[in-house]
Design a protein that fits this description.
Blueprint lengths: L2 E6 L5 E8 L6 E7 L4 E6 L7 H15 L6 E7 L10 H17 L2 H6 L8 H6 L2 E5 L4 E4 L7 E6 L6 H13 L15 H7 L1 H12 L5 E3 L6 E5 L2 H15 L2 E6 L10 E2 L2 E3 L1
Parallel strand pairs: 4-5
Antiparallel strand pairs: 1-2, 2-6, 3-5, 3-13, 6-7, 8-10, 8-11, 9-10, 12-13
Length: 272
């Protein structure tokens, strides 16, 4: 819902200001705590995020130590539904989901929320869920009012934007004076760059605007492009026309007050 990059921090991360909004698409995260010391991770998807298994292993080790379960094992199974490399927070949502599951099982959600920023700038906001304002490197999270009963038409150009690469590019162009920072919270500092680098993203913008969408926005660092509407029919009409014009796939979903739903919490199993 807007992303500004304010500069490079001494800790190697970027200073950002962004709004996050939970929507009705998510991965299924299954976490089971075991008596043995074995820790296994299964990823159900045609494509896994870069370094995903290594990063998830580090998360499990740190989280289990923080909640006092260092002598227990854990099995994680993630069914991927959020597109990868689309700027929809797919990786961050998985890290937040595993932390949330372990928090529910252990009763130490606050403890795990405190370490969430170690695994990505969007993870703290994903952990809180709903609509929130994230500042600093993303660890300063403030819940915002509003965001209810909104509909999102999300168009998915067939390109994958690597987050780290996009941040390096936007910083380089900003230093050289080639890009202007977004002037409002609804703006996105990555939009111009993404549209230049990937013609498919530019085509998505044009298709949604041609379909009568009011404000069209880039999600995160790309590549997904979306429109927000108060009515399902309006979002659906814009998305359908844009999909027909471009041949891209799309997602129609509504806003959510929180970022997770518990499907099961019995026998040591929790799902997000």
């Amino acid at each position: 819902m807007g992303l500004q990059v304010l500069g490079h921090r001494e800790d190697g991360f970027h200073e950002i200001v962004t709004q996050l909004q939970s929507i009705g698409i998510g991965d299924i995260v299954d976490v089971q705590v075991m008596e043995d010391l074995d820790r296994k991770v299964e990823f159900v998807s045609l494509q896994a995020p870069k370094d995903w298994s290594v990063r998830m292993g580090l998360l499990l080790d740190k989280a289990m130590n923080e909640i006092g379960w260092s002598d227990q094992g854990v099995r994680v199974r993630i069914e991927k539904q959020i597109p990868i490399g689309a700027g929809l927070g797919g990786s961050g949502a998985d890290y937040a989901g595993v932390l949330r599951c372990l928090g529910i099982l252990s009763g130490k959600e606050t403890v795990l929320q405190g370490i969430s920023s170690s695994f990505g700038s969007d993870v703290p906001g994903m952990f809180v869920g709903g609509r929130n304002l994230c500042q600093g490197r993303g660890e300063l999270v403030k819940s915002l009012p509003g965001g209810e009963n909104l509909w999102f038409g999300v168009l998915l150009p067939p390109v994958c934007c690597d987050t780290e690469h996009m941040y390096r590019e936007v910083e380089h162009h900003a230093e050289s004076g080639g890009l202007d920072s977004a002037s409002t919270m609804e703006g996105n500092d990555f939009e111009i760059l993404a549209r230049i680098m990937y013609p498919e993203i530019d085509q998505a913008f044009q298709a949604l605007k041609g379909a009568g969408a009011g404000m069209v926005q880039l999600s995160g660092s790309g590549s997904a492009v979306f429109v927000v509407a108060n009515e399902e029919k309006q979002a659906a009409r814009c998305l359908e026309q844009a999909c027909q014009q471009t041949g891209y796939s799309g997602i129609l979903c509504d806003s959510k007050k929180r970022g997770y739903s518990i499907l099961m919490n019995e026998w040591g199993v929790a799902k997000r």
